[in-house]
Structures are given as C-alpha cells and as structure tokens.
C-alpha cells in the first residue's frame, strides 16, 4: 500500500490486529482468517476438517473454544489500541455438532472500556445454523501491542 493511502488511527489498529492474529503460531494448526469490519466486531472464517474430529465424527470442543475465544477476544481488543488483552474467563455452550465444511465465528463486544471487557461470540456452520455460543471476560495486560512482532501499525 503506498504511504499516502496507508490506514491510520482506528483502521490501522484493526488491520494490525488482523496481522497479529495471522502471525500466531497456533493458527498453523487451526487455519483461519480474521477480519475486523469495525471496532467491537470480528469474524473468523475457518474450515472444519476430519483432522479436528473426536472419535464420534464431529469437531472436538478444542476447535469450538479456540474460534469462540478468538472471535470474542479480538472484538474486545479492537477497542484497546495500546495493550494486549488476556482472557480471564470463558463460558461455552454447544448447540450443534460441527461437521466438515466452512464455518465462521462472529464476535461482538458487549461491555467494559477500561480494565475488564465482556464480549460474546457464536459459531455458524456452512448451513447457516448456530453450533455454539460463548461469552468471555478479558482484561488489560502489561503487554504493549506495539512490542509484539505480528502487530504492524500503519
């Protein structure tokens, strides 16, 4: 992107969080793509493959938790431009087994703007049906976003 069209302010922060997500080593195991359409909202697109199945032929809870936690976390951290947030608690409700196919986790900030943030997320499968829902609490850490290799502000 030419310097005169590089994003600034909130837009630069959102794009930098997307880059941070993409740089996380865990995402080599769980291939996925984060997009932040606006502060307080996130979407993670991912594929459910048989490699993530438990013995009964559906996605293991690990995949549900990872995608719900990430979607809620990034919805909350999109409102904080200086610090990395940490998950302090997460409640997860399974509503439908995920089978092989495309899915998305949608995150949304609910409350908090100082120290503790609350955000929720849900997973929707390729048929448009909700498979799980979760709510997390997140708090500011002492880790500066600007000190993380994957975070690249514009």
UniProtKB/TrEMBL annotation:
Residues 57-132 form the Thioesterase domain. GO terms for molecular function: acyl-CoA hydrolase activity. It comes from the Bacteria. Keywords: Hydrolase. It holds the Pfam family 4HBT. SUPFAM superfamilies: Thioesterase/thiol ester dehydrase-isomerase. The keyword Hydrolase applies. Signal peptide: none annotated. This is PaaI family thioesterase.
